[in-house]
């Protein structure tokens, strides 16, 4: 079941859901608007020119209120908000159609697990032929919350728990059991 603005507001007030900082105008009928933070990361140049999923990738990270996303460029960014989801709730990250119409693709793998706590790292891609100026504090998407039928047996406690800032991939830490 997707949560309504009434339920979201109630949960925020009682502290069972955390979204901070938040302004009342961010709470929509079935979502919470998320704003762009001021941390941006890009993969550093590598001599080999190949990303291996088995090795750590290094990122260059900057803090700025404005970032110029060039055509065809990919950058990691972060939300301004810090979230803490209870063990019986999940969330979906959705981009704003107004920005998608400019060629700005926003994703974060789309899913926030029950029990996750931290800022959400966003993957931004400029599919336009013009640069797009990104500005911290601007609404870039929304978080849609859904209630689980009961508490998760294994709430999230993974490698991105309590992350702050644009956090690079830690896929090299995965132990593949296949």
TrEMBL record:
The record marks 110-111 as: Important for bifunctional activity. The active site is at 123 (proton donor/acceptor). Keywords: Hydrolase, Nucleotide metabolism, Nucleotide-binding. It catalyses: dCTP + 2 H2O = dUMP + NH4(+) + diphosphate. CDD domains: trimeric_dUTPase (cd07557). Belongs to the dCTP deaminase family. NCBIfam families: dCTP_deam. This is dCTP deaminase, dUMP-forming. It comes from Parablautia intestinalis.
């Amino acid at each position: 079941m997707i949560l309504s603005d009434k339920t979201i507001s109630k949960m925020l007030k009682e502290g069972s859901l955390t979204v901070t900082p938040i302004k009342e105008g961010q709470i929509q009928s079935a979502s919470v608007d998320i704003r762009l933070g001021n941390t941006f990361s890009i993969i550093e140049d590598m001599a080999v020119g190949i990303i291996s999923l088995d090795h750590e990738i290094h990122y260059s990270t900057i803090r700025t209120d404005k970032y110029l996303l060039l055509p065809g460029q990919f950058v990691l960014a972060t939300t301004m908000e810090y979230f803490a989801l209870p063990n019986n709730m999940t969330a979906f990250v959705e981009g704003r159609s107004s920005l998608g119409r400019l060629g700005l693709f926003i994703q974060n793998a789309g899913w926030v697990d029950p029990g996750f706590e931290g800022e959400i790292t966003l993957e931004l891609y400029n599919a336009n032929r013009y640069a797009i100026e990104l500005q911290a504090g601007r609404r870039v998407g929304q978080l849609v919350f859904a209630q689980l039928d009961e508490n998760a047996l294994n709430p999230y406690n993974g490698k991105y728990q309590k992350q702050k800032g644009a956090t690079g991939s830690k896929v090299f830490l995965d132990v593949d059991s296949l």
